[in-house]
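step: validate -> pass
step: tokenize input -> pass
step: predict -> running
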Amino acid sequence: MKPNYLKRYIISSYILVWALIILVAGPATLVFHAPPVVMWIIRNLVAWSPTYLLLIGWKQFRPGEARMTFIKRCFSGKIRPFLVLFSFGLVFGISMLSLLLLSIIDKRPMASYIDLGSVSLPLSIFLSFTSGPTGEELGWRGFMREEFHQRYGFLKSSVCQGLVWCFWHTLLWAVDSDFTDWRAVPYILSNIVVITCLTILMNIFLERQNNLVYSVLLHFGFNIVYVFLDAGIGFFVILIVLYLIITPTAVWIRNRLIVNGK
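step: predict -> pass
step: emit ->
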């Protein structure tokens, strides 16, 4: 029987991230009470697990190809300045629009939902960029995207990728969230919808230019807002609605461009 390398990678990535959370991140915060910067560094090490799992165990997941050949292909597309800015600005703008709508509903200034925290702004931005955006994309939008695309069409492949990426965060929903009462339901629903929609948007960009720089910046544009966000569950409910409007629109535009040969 031919090995299912995709299944092997997904199962391994889940086991590794849960082991790191339980054995490293958990004791660091609960037993040793590590300061915020140290915990952030530990979370970044956890976030990089899809990449170093892939690179260290490469022969277990893609034995028929050289590691560097794969990496070069993942960054082979052209860097177009407008697309680069748009990839970041699109998701950052969606989050800011959600925050604006929340401020209108709550009749509060948008600035009241921002908390700069105890870590300096430059360090916060650096740690955010070197977390999921640079740590996860080689595994998810590199390896996993290629594997799913060999099996399914664009939309089904993107949804499958999004769900795998989404539920990879499952344990974090329990240990790294303030929403532990009834609000956990819309929060988890928001994660499922938004992460799946993000994957679809990422794949639209990568379909145009196969370069992970686009998905890295899109991922960063999404994550950076949450570094400073201090908003209630209403923000995430609005986010669901926005992504369910914007993502189908983006897919429709993508399909029209393909039909028109652009």
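step: describe -> The first helix runs from residue 5 to 30.
step: cleanup -> pass
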